[in-house]
TrEMBL record, chains A, B:
This protein's pathway: Amino-acid biosynthesis; L-proline biosynthesis; L-glutamate 5-semialdehyde from L-glutamate: step 2/2
Keyword Amino-acid biosynthesis: yes
Similarity section: Belongs to the gamma-glutamyl phosphate reductase family.
Protein name per Swiss-Prot or TrEMBL: Gamma-glutamyl phosphate reductase
GO molecular function: glutamate-5-semialdehyde dehydrogenase activity; NADP binding
Organism: Gallionella capsiferriformans (strain ES-2) (Gallionella ferruginea capsiferriformans (strain ES-2))
Gene3D superfamilies in the record: Aldehyde Dehydrogenase, Chain A, domain 1, Aldehyde Dehydrogenase, Chain A, domain 2
An example Gene Ontology biological process: L-proline biosynthetic process
GO cellular component: cytoplasm
Catalyzed chemical reaction(s): L-glutamate 5-semialdehyde + phosphate + NADP(+) = L-glutamyl 5-phosphate + NADPH + H(+)
Pfam families associated with the record: Aldedh (PF00171)
Known function: Catalyzes the NADPH-dependent reduction of L-glutamate 5-phosphate into L-glutamate 5-semialdehyde and phosphate. The product spontaneously undergoes cyclization to form 1-pyrroline-5-carboxylate.
Amino acid sequence: MRHPSGMKDIMENIQAYMQQVGIAARTASRTLAQADTSAKNRALGEIATTLLEQSALILTANSRDVATARAAGLDEASIDRLTLTEKTIRAMSEGLLQIAQLPDLIGAITDLNFRPSGIQVGKMRVPLGVIGIIYESRPNVTADAAGLCIKSGNAAILRGGSEAIHSNQAIAACVHAGLKAAGLPESAVQVVATTDRAAVGELITMKEYVDVIVPRGGKSLIARISADAKVPVIKHLDGICHVYIDDEADLDKAIRIADNAKTHRYGVCNAMETLLVAEGVAAQVLPPLCKLYLEKGVELRGDAACCALVPHMTLAVEEDWHTEYLAPILSVKIVTGMDEAINHIATYSSQHTDTIVTENYSRAMRFLREVDSSSVMVNASTRFADGFEYGLGAEIGISTDKIHARGPVGLEGLTSQKYIVLGSGQIRV
Amino acid sequence: MRHPSGMKDIMENIQAYMQQVGIAARTASRTLAQADTSAKNRALGEIATTLLEQSALILTANSRDVATARAAGLDEASIDRLTLTEKTIRAMSEGLLQIAQLPDLIGAITDLNFRPSGIQVGKMRVPLGVIGIIYESRPNVTADAAGLCIKSGNAAILRGGSEAIHSNQAIAACVHAGLKAAGLPESAVQVVATTDRAAVGELITMKEYVDVIVPRGGKSLIARISADAKVPVIKHLDGICHVYIDDEADLDKAIRIADNAKTHRYGVCNAMETLLVAEGVAAQVLPPLCKLYLEKGVELRGDAACCALVPHMTLAVEEDWHTEYLAPILSVKIVTGMDEAINHIATYSSQHTDTIVTENYSRAMRFLREVDSSSVMVNASTRFADGFEYGLGAEIGISTDKIHARGPVGLEGLTSQKYIVLGSGQIRV
């Protein structure tokens, strides 16, 4: 129980407050949807400048959050994510200038074709409207998310972690100054002022004011939001990514890719968690590859056939094939070939990113077509599954949902399309 | 209470049955996703032929449903929708052949570009997976929906109205025969065998087996499904469509379009429900236009200014601007111009379809950009908002949601895209 007394009043106040935030966001979203590219870019530039000018104030606010977090006994990893420096503020500022340089997608008309009736039918790209972003400790998300929403013509309601409230408010002040300088409504980006959890419950169910929710954080946060949201959610839960080394793989490429996919970074969603190897090449490829892993301190868990080939490998259990380790641990399985690999992926993959390494054209095409993940790759590291690497510019997240955005979500993922019809007086007969 | 005794057992049985249906659909969806165009088209052709061959059996099953419905006192409009004839069976058969003639979108790769790292990144169009379709009396939906799902590579779970169960089962038998003849799994299209409503509750919450729900029917059915569904829903609730006659309209076009948008068909979602007229042309355009309406028996409800201009018009109340009449009733409002028209539409439109009639280029462009509806038109009747008219071939419905499909939903609306990456051994550095 968070409110031992007067809970009903507080809940009602929070509801009223969030409704107010929602109405202001909806109103601002209509202005922002019509804003021209130069106004949006000017706002981004002004925010970038203001962040640098106000860095002392932001760092002071941040110290306050960090001190409170330390006193409350928050773990070091969380405090590290919470802490801002001159360098991270500079990175936020540069990120906004990069978003300003990306093309403006809003209003673009595509696929305009004449129909037999004489009307022309096409599609116009439009913003989604109001985007609610729910995130944990990192205060830099406040600037990144504001930038992406402004450029894509969306109003944003930002709900950061309670431990970062002063940092987020200080960054929000810079965002508001920039919006104002560019003649755009300040309520286009609102940071929720209360740290009460009930505010999240309101945000994810206010269908009339919020068009989509983007949760950024750990799996439990995202699972909880997805379960309770009435508004659509752009998300992924797990990144159980696979590399399949086919028996017609170029083994040098295979070792390079499988090494990079696991060891380039361990704690990221596009890191490989399970390696599948065709039995025809297992004896050749696994010993040198596993030697690399063991040298880098990666713990190996394999099926019985793998354990027979590689020393220092422990026997994997069913649970391993389901696990996103996000750590220097790898599960390895020898498969009879392509069919077993595809079936294993269909059973255990989280539909995030899966790669085949092969020189066989038909198998490459079959893998691309049959593996039902948001990114499917041939002869490339799973680590490439990323908005920047794909050329989307900035990235607000990666979606494993099939409806709407799928894969890395950049500016385009924050937009929708409507049909437009250009006639010259046509009626239906 | 539908089950006075043994309710718990029945509910558990329905849950187990629906799980079985879900598993079979998921398995079949994997085969159908890989099926080549010729197999899918062959199935459609075989179903079309079988429907004609089995028309006597289908009509017998349908008579049984109609007799039961009459005995139960179902209204005439519903019985009319339920009743099949030789002609409607021929239309179903022809509809399937038309779907066979549409291009196959599945597997198409677009936007393939090299990135600085050397990888190529593109998008591949893929099916959604399993589509649940919930509909009311019309048994022809069984054939139409089966055809659209098969062509788009999706498995379908069809849940028709309980009053049409024998008709739907007879049509489903033809669908299964066609799938079998083409070497495709019969469980690619399943008609739910129970008429218990609990089956719907299962269908719309089985996230692991169902990717999207398409409800087809009245507003109350759709509202109920949207409220309870855990699976994404492709839908629209209301079609409160507007025509705005600008003061720079060509008045001949304006009268032609406003007449057609209201009177071409009354009971359809893309019929105009509210007419907005700029005050500068109201005195010229409203009297002749309203004369047309009154001759066709359309009841007119206007604001005070309209009532002063047109005889036999009653004063509209606030409720009228919110109402989808689906009947020969029209609300009419005189506005000062473009801004008031856009604001009225933003307040009252159901974001389905709205039209401006004007010869002014800048206003036409502004209306297209600023009106946030799934279809926005210039100088054309709202009645064009339709999958066939837009060149989508067949149509499974119209969506007013911004996430994913928006506007008429045809084959493409039943598909998603995944990213594909083509490398030659690249790793991230």
